[in-house]
Amino acid sequence: MPLTARVGIDVGGTFTDVVWTNEEGVHVEKTPSTPTAPATGVLDGVDAVLAAGIPPAAIEVIAHGTTVATNAVLERDWAATGLLTNAGFTDILEIGRQTRPGLYDLAATAPPPVVERAHRHGVACRLDEYGAVEEPLTEADVADAIAALDTAALDSVAVSLLFAYENPDHEQQLAAAVADQTDLSVSVSSSVLAEIREYERTLVTALNAAVAPVMDEYLGRLETGIEDQGIQAPLQVMQSNGGILDTDQARSQPVRTLLSGPAAGVKGAAHVAARHGLEDVITMDMGGTSCDVALVTDGEATTATDLTVGGYPIAVPMVAVHTIGAGGGSIGRIDDGGALRVGPDSAGADPGPVCYGRGGARPTVTDAHAVLGRIDPDRLLGPGQSAPTDTVREAFRRTLTDRFDGSVEEAAAGLLRVARSNMEEALRVVSVDQGQDPREFGLVAFGGAGPLHATNLAAALDVPRVVIPPHAGVLSALGLLVSDLQYDPSTSMVRRWGELTPETLATTFDDLIAADRRRLQATGYEDAAIDVKRAVDLRYEGQSFELTIPIEATTIDEATMERVRGRFHEAYRERYGHATPEVPVELVTVRATTRGPVEPPSVPSAPTGGSVTAARTDRREVWFDGQYHETPVYERGKLPRDEHIAGPAVVAGTDSTTVVHPGQTATVAADGTLLVEP
Fold first, then answer.
1. Does an H or E element contain 265, and which?
2. C-alpha to C-alpha distance for 29 and 395, rounded to whole angstroms
3. How does the average pLDDT of the chain come out, rounded?
4. Whole-prediction pTM value?
């Protein structure tokens, strides 16, 4: 009987990472990404799994991290979209919040509205703040709204009415009429984001409508291609909150996949860290063009509802990833003031760093590592190819060495110091700026370039332990296979906490959870296996923003309500340094998380025989602290478990390289993870 397999496929800008797991362990493959036809690269990854001898019938599930929705928003390459909203509110997408990304930037410009003015139409109906009808929606109003839509010029329409989170009837009537009388895709705010704040809710609904046809076409091609290969396994999609969606949900709410890839990496990092007893870690994913960092506390990724993508504030829950333009391809230059800068410009994959030999002419972070001996650029190239070492050094001499008294090594080391400084700042944004001390966290480094920098970064921030997972270069794909099926419904109901009955709150939670519980049961989960978490957003009356307070009790009664109120005062004091218990507390939003846990794949193991000496493949001169050190180079896959490696050392893997600096020690864990004590 063939071994069953689970497949994770994560699409990056350059490569599509493919990981499949079965009873024999974890297997890795990389295929080129195909930006102009993204489904092709994913199907090539599926072909690679089948070519490795996995029968189609043995594949249980295909979990996919996609950039389709992200790219559509960043490039504004989306479907032509219309908007139906209340009369008098058609300009809300342009008015927004009047905020600016740079307070003193007098030339700042907002991103263009998702829906053009000509396709935004007001409807004569109105609810009050509790959902009671003030002005009814008549059949004539519905007919006028349909007539106003230029159906020949549109592919999709968003419906977002005031206070629809309290009463969705008017939205549903409009949506049903649009679906019945046109061929347009429809997104409704009470389904996409049933929360207060008209601008954010309308924006997310409009973005969802704009991206929905793009995602539907993409998933359709994928599903057809997978079926043509004889695979009957379900296709699942990573969402931004760190959970997995089925394709029906991904089609109807693609806005929840905007951080699909980065979220999978954070989940994979949290999983590996937990295996080694670390519940609080900073994650660092460094690839060719960017570095993504995030915070994990108590084993869970920190999420937020105020992140931006492409300049648009996205109010759906997303893993709080902070991204900077620092990757292996980031280019070094001297600015007009004579200072060394690194990034955000990147050499990308084509032509790539100078050491790739594909025509790159400007020195990059990868080139700096090559000059200093920390990587062997020949390993990055195809068989029989050798890196143009002289060309790399010439690139530094031509552009940077004047700043470093003519020394190529000092110029390369300076480039890495600046890159490290940029990454240090990113790590502080997700830790120190959030009131967290990095000295109390571990650092999980992954991506092709992350392990090259992590040990030095950890030393600079006094992080006590660095975790380099096995297959660090493809951890995002592995993260797909440890992520649970997850749904995060929410609804706003602005009420004084003291006037809210436990029965009303309990009923609201039950209504939120019911549909998602049924969805998980339909996929085979027993009711007892489904994990449900509840939380509420609270604020002091009169305030504009709120704090999310978890409800840990399974039964909601008066005692539970009082405990939640007390926890809010404590959380407020922790965040702001004071609390005012005498001010009434106000409920804003009710939140639930319904999760179907997955069984993590079997843990790979490091070799039990051999020795560190046998794993050594080379000795070469590597630059550390202003001078060359004779440094051993180890093949990571041959390092036996429980062995220790004293720095300086270079550990070369198939998808990433780890640098252990002088004075540091790395230990090989039983699963092959490198644990470095900076």
1. helix 260-275
2. 33
3. 91
4. 0.89
